[in-house]
Write a structure and sequence with these properties.
161 residues, alpha+beta, OB fold (Dihydrolipoamide Acetyltransferase, E2P), elongated
């Protein structure tokens, strides 16, 4: 019977531990390394030296991680909805306390909640103005004026009249 050394046992234990961690977290963080441990385990059984086993572990783990994780994350996150802060960007808010670059910050109401607000475009905003949220930093909304729709030009008079 060939002498496999103890490395096959090391890779088998690593494989079991990595799979157990993945099953506990379901975060797609260790499954890629479990695949590398599986390849290294078979290499150890075939009598490869430890350096070959280590290189196989690293290369297989990285190749699978870099090639499969983006694809897997896209599939797993396809039904993810934006959370609270992400969902306010691009929405309209009403100014309830005036502000400008000279004033520290104002207050806007969005979805029934008050937020502190600062101007992105350097404009002055009065109570009752409608603004658009362009970004969120902490608990402050950075807002700007809504883009105005261009006025519809009057039709040209018919020269034959």
């Amino acid at each position: 019977m060939p002498d496999f050394g103890f490395w096959w046992l090391f890779w088998l234990v690593a494989l079991v531990v990595l799979v157990a961690i993945e099953l506990g977290t379901l975060a797609l963080t260790t499954i890629w390394f479990a695949a590398g441990a599986l390849v290294a385990f078979f290499a150890a059984l075939l009598g490869a030296n430890i350096w070959v086993q280590l290189w196989l572990f690293v290369i297989v783990s990285l190749v699978i991680l870099l090639s499969m994780r983006p694809f897997a994350m896209k599939i797993l996150n396809r039904h993810t909805t934006k959370t609270n802060v992400d969902s306010v960007i691009g929405r309209k808010a009403k100014v309830t306390k005036a502000f400008s670059d000279d004033l520290a910050s104002g207050v806007v109401v969005l979805g029934g909640q008050e937020w502190s607000a600062k101007s992105v475009d350097g404009g002055a905003y009065q109570k009752g103005d409608t603004v658009i949220v362009s970004e969120v930093r902490g608990v402050t909304l950075y807002v700007m004026r809504p883009k105005e729709k261009p006025a519809t030009p009057e039709p040209l008079a018919d020269p034959s009249e």
